[in-house]
Amino acid sequence: MPMIEIRDLRKSYAELEVLKGISFDVEKGEVVVVLGPSGSGKSTMLRCINLLEEFQGGGIRIDGEAIGYTTTEGGKRRRRKEAENAKLREQVGMVFQSFNLFPHRTVLQNVMMGPLKVKGIARREAEALARDLLKKVGLLDKADQYPARLSGGQQQRVGIARALAMQPKVMLFDEVTSALDPELVGEVLRVMRQLAQEGMTMIIVTHEIHFARDVGDRIIFMDHGAIVEEGLPANILANPKSDRFKQFLRRYQGDYLDT
Amino acid sequence: MTPNVLINNLPYLLKGALVTLELSVVVLIAGNLLGLVIGIVATSVGRIGQSLITAYIFVLRGIPILVIMLLGYYAFPALGYRVPAYVAVGVAQIIYVSAFVAEIVRSAILSVPSGQIAAARSLGMRRFSILKEIVLPQATRIAIPPLLNNSLTAIKQTSYVSVVGVWELTYAAREVVERTLASFQIFLGVMAIYFIICYPLSLLARRWERRAAVVQ
Amino acid sequence: MDFLVNLLAIWARLYPSLVSGFAVTISVALAAIPLALLGALLLTPLRMWGGSIIHAVTGAYIEFMRNTPLLLQIYLIYFGLPLLGLYPSEFMCGVIGIAMQHAAFLAEIYRGGIESISQRQWDAARAMGMTWAKALRNVILPQAGLRILGPIGNQLIILVKDTSLVSAIGVVDLTMVGKVSIERLAVTLEIFLAIALIYLALTGVLGAVLRIIERRVLERIG
Prior knowledge:
The structure holds three protein chains of three kinds. By secondary structure, chain A is of the alpha/beta class. Helix content of chain A is 38%, strand content 25%. In chain A, the strands form three sheets. Chain A has a six-stranded mixed sheet with strand order 8-9-10-3-11-12, sandwiched between helices. In chain A, strands 2-1-4-5 form a four-stranded antiparallel sheet, covered by helices on one side. Chain A has a two-stranded antiparallel ribbon with strand order 6-7. In chain A, helix 4 (123-136) packs across helix 5. Chain B is flat. By secondary structure, chain B is an all-alpha fold. Chain B has eight helices and no strands. Chain B is 83% helix and 0% strand. Chain C has a single domain (2-221), classed as MetI-like fold, CATH 1.10.3720. Chain C contains nine helices and no strands. In chain C, helix 1 (2-49) packs across helix 4. Chain C starts with a helix and ends with a helix. The relative contact order of chain C is 0.14. Classes of the chains: A alpha/beta, B mainly alpha, C mainly alpha. At the B-C interface, helix 2, helix 3, helix 6, helix 7 and helix 8 of B face helix 2, helix 3, helix 8 and helix 9 of C.
């Protein structure tokens, strides 16, 4: 059974349809990279997976369980209870473009927040877990600092540690390097690469094409709310089929060819 | 139960409302003008001037308006001037309002990003031009919501002159209540009159707050 | 020089009344402040998350309090409650009036604080599986609370100044001491100068304390 199943996902903002029937699966341990120009709906699609955005049509399953909406026996669409959706969210970790760390808590407390307040783990255990994760992302020495004192790259690594603290089955990355200065991007990508090697199921929305080629098991290219091309990195990056994907690659060619 | 007493006394009360409106207009115009001048001056004088103005603002904002009015009421005769009560009290209210306006104006001017002034100067603009073209337009936009809220407060504060014996809407209300004992009708009715005067201003302030937020 | 010596002599005579007036002023403030803070705490969730009727009713209450003078509210309570058979003391009437008005303002401040926390914080909290209530308690409210400390402080200083209005219904607070002393002790300007200075000292000290608290908070969150 795939870890993530998305079937005919549809979403509109008022009159504007932003997701026009997206379908794809993600297997356990797979790293899927989603590329696309701004406005293609890739971030919106990602945010539907953990129901930070509502969607009006289609279905999403996380490890077999439907999130957000189920179909009743009569074939009607029913919204799941908030508590049920929240429980499902515990299995999905998300890292944000703008980090979204909690400014009123230290780095360590940020990472502990999930295990402590959501899972109800004892404080000592939660702290040990948090310290391990901070060590893993290379920020143990910043444990007692407040987020405001950290650089962008450091804050983002804390964000990754915080998401990992929930021991999720899937990690979603929403353009996590787009807001970073170029020299800080590397430290974040390094952590993500390590996660991929350890077998984490990941869906990464990004612009970084070389990262897609290095780490991705599969690339999905989206444009105007639909999947335009899909395939193995080696194949579709070398031989793009659609014009729109060719155009996209050409625009980012500078970044791509440089690596 | 119909508000007979209120309706019967409405003409009298509305006369009071008129006085309240007149007083409000005078206090607001004079207070805002004075405060505007002081606020602008505060940003362009040297250390001594700024300290004086800061002290002015600090003192006036730290004392209840009632006490300031009482001070005004007794200060004039003590200094040898015989003025009607409403003048003494009106002056006190004007000065009180000016302190708040000055603070609002001053901080609005100071909150215009200094980078813009630097840019204007590097283009060769003179001080007066910079003030006129760059600083004041932006400062105005920032200052309008708090100024409107402040005006709202000032209108409500005109009711306090009744405590010092000046006749206006609140004084009239008390007179009627003491005569008729219909506290609920009269006071609620008069509160409604104040509400009708103030609420539009409140809505205006809210709309400007939203506009200012969008621009930021 | 003469004037100054005279002034100090008068102030020495007035000292007992001033102290008792000051004590009453402080009592009114200390009684009204917790009532206003707690009252607003009740109003805010009703206003933000109550059903449409509750939302409208609390909204109307808040608007009415904000657009009518405090003096009239105090008069309404003082002259109106006896008609209902209730006879609270002047002190109580003043405290209730002040608390009701300031609860309305504080409720708006609380609401502004919560709404000012970026949607992204909600996103991060919900993304880790927090329910709405958990997110509110652990992420939103702590941040909002820190943010509104300044505005709350300002509002409380206004409250302290508003206590002077209780003199209008006969409570012998610091302001009333002035009015009373005029007849009894034949002094005018001198006593009101003293009263003004005492209020100034009170609000000045409060303001300084609040600024220190704010600075500590900002240092922590940076």
